[in-house]
Every structure is written in structure tokens, then in C-alpha cells.
Amino acid sequence: MGLLYPFPASEQEVDRIAQTNESITLKTYGLPMIFWGYLAAFLVVIFAMVLAIKGPLMTMMSSDDPINPKLAYLVLATLFLLPFTALTAFFYEKWLHKSGDQLTIIHRVFFFPVLKKTYKLDQATPFIVEHFMDSPNIAKLEKKPEMRAFENQGHFLLHAHLEDNSFLTIDRHSRKADLQKISEMLGKY
Q: E strands along the chain, which residues?
């Protein structure tokens, strides 16, 4: 999530961190402002589509053919669900709540918790930062200086080491230092 919805990497970012003596809660930041422009353009296109198909859609709804009203309602449902789904991406938030050896991950949409799950962490190494590269680094293999800008750097993953020796991916980020800071912040509590 850290590639699109980053967690705060410093305890000075008090608007996205809630601390008590025994626990800490980290909250992701929202999407950057440029994405709101993309959403506005998307909604304008959907609105133009609704205006363009309103007449034929009403004709299909009043048709005697049994399939036409079903298709019309399917199109209406799609035209409603597309903007709603896009809006959920703008009002999505992920919270990490750490207290002792318990880590709770809460996914929120429109300020309401949708999914909440609690995990018991391993005492010795609760968090691990790992480098991940899913494709071969062809530009690096060629060893040409002009190809340096095209080298795949991959990204980093923050894993929670659970009590049953399994691993849970909490976050990913292009900067290892940010994930290490998040790991240190969570490790204090």
C-alpha cells in the first residue's frame, strides 16, 4: 500500500499517528491531489455517457422483450458502480494498531471500518524489511552506462513475523528507510 497510500515515517507527523503509553496507531495518507483531478475527469466522462444513453436506455426499459429491461438495468448498475468504486479509492484508509504483541490491521472506507483483523506477533523479530524484485533486471545485466536510468530497482516489503512462524505483508514502499522507520515506531510499543 505504501506505493500509493503511504504510512507516516516519523513520529512528528502527529495528524496520522495516535499514541498512548501502551499502543500506537498509524494511519495512511490519502491519494495526492492530482488524483482528484483524474476523478473529476472520470466523473465528467461517466456523466456524458449517462446523458448520451438516457433515451435508448429508457426505450430498452419499456421494451416488451424480456432481455432488454435486464440489459438496461445492468447498464444502470454499471454506471452507478463505476463512480462509487472510484470514490471508495479516495476514501480508503488503512490503520495499523500495535499494542504489546498484538497487531491489528483495520481497513476503512468512507470513515467506517470494513475489515479488522488482529494478529499475534513473534516476540524476537516482530517486523522484517525485505527487498523485492519480481522481474529480471535486464538493463543492469547489459552493464551499459546509458541504460542505468532503466534499471529496475524493485521495492521493499514490511513483513510482520507472526507467532506461528508465518509472515504477513503489512506495507510496501520504494524507500527502505521509510519502512525501517515504521518498523522501529511499531517496535517501541
A: 17-19, 23-27, 92-99, 102-109, 112-120, 127-132, 155-161, 167-173
Q: Can you name the residues that pair with 169 across neighbouring β-strands?
A: 159
Per 3-state DSSP, the chain is made up of helix, strand and coil in percentages (nearest 5) of 40, 30, 30
Nearest in space to 24 (alpha carbons), one of 103, 108, 113:
103
Share of the chain above pLDDT 90, in %: 60
Rounded to an integer, what distance in angstroms lies between the CA atom of residue 158 and that of residue 182? 9
Strands 17-19 and 102-109, sheet pairing = unpaired
10 Å Cβ neighbour count for 75? 17
Considering the chain, what is the average pLDDT of its residues? 88
Task: Give SS3 for 53.
Answer: helix
